[in-house]
Specification:
With 179 residues, the chain is an alpha+beta fold. Helix content is 16%, strand content 34%.
């Protein structure tokens, strides 16, 4: 009997095509149970009556088969879109493809990026022309845990939805987001 560890199967080269991308759904990103303050914040956004998905588009570009492996998500947030305060249970490396991403006092533009470790809460918003982001993860399944309303973040989000909905209706998807 050998005590050597079992080797993982050797990975193979894989290709993916934009035309085959699918909307990011719960089979890849599950939503965790929310706190009372996050539910209250989400209710404020719901009260704006802005259609879900009007201000953003997320596509799962690549996901390795099985429970472990890499995944790649494309995210386009329209102008002024505010991402709700949240965290994920896996590390994520973000790369800005176009537009501007505002996080705290930082502004990230095309070619910039950020690393967000697992379970770190964060929020950001898109600049005046929106933002396109690639999200690289070393996970094929990850969660999203919406956070509370510290500092009025959900109020800011609801205001953005209320004030930007009319503009979002006419904003067109950047060429890089078209299938």
């Amino acid at each position: 009997m050998s005590n050597s560890p079992t080797k993982a199967p050797r990975k193979r080269m894989a290709f993916f095509y934009a035309k085959d991308a699918v909307t990011l759904g719960p089979e890849t990103m599950s939503r965790e149970a929310m706190s009372e303050s996050a539910l209250a914040g989400l209710a404020k956004v719901t009260e704006t009556k802005t259609p879900i998905g009007l201000g953003e588009k997320s596509l799962l570009l690549f996901k390795e088969p099985g429970e472990k492996g890499m995944s790649l998500v494309y995210l386009w947030l329209k102008s002024g879109y505010v991402l709700p305060p949240h965290s994920h249970d896996g590390d994520c490396l973000y790369y800005v493809v176009g537009g501007e991403l505002h996080i705290g006092a930082k502004v990230l533009r095309k070619g910039d990026g950020m690393f967000i470790p697992a379970d770190a809460a964060y929020t950001y918003h898109a600049g005046e022309e929106g933002v396109e982001v690639l999200e690289f993860r070393n996970a094929t399944h990850f969660n999203i845990a919406l956070k509370g309303n510290e500092g009025g973040l959900w109020d800011h989000l609801a205001t953005a939805f209320r004030e930007r909905a009319v503009v979002w209706e006419t904003e067109t998807v950047p060429p890089s987001a078209r299938k």
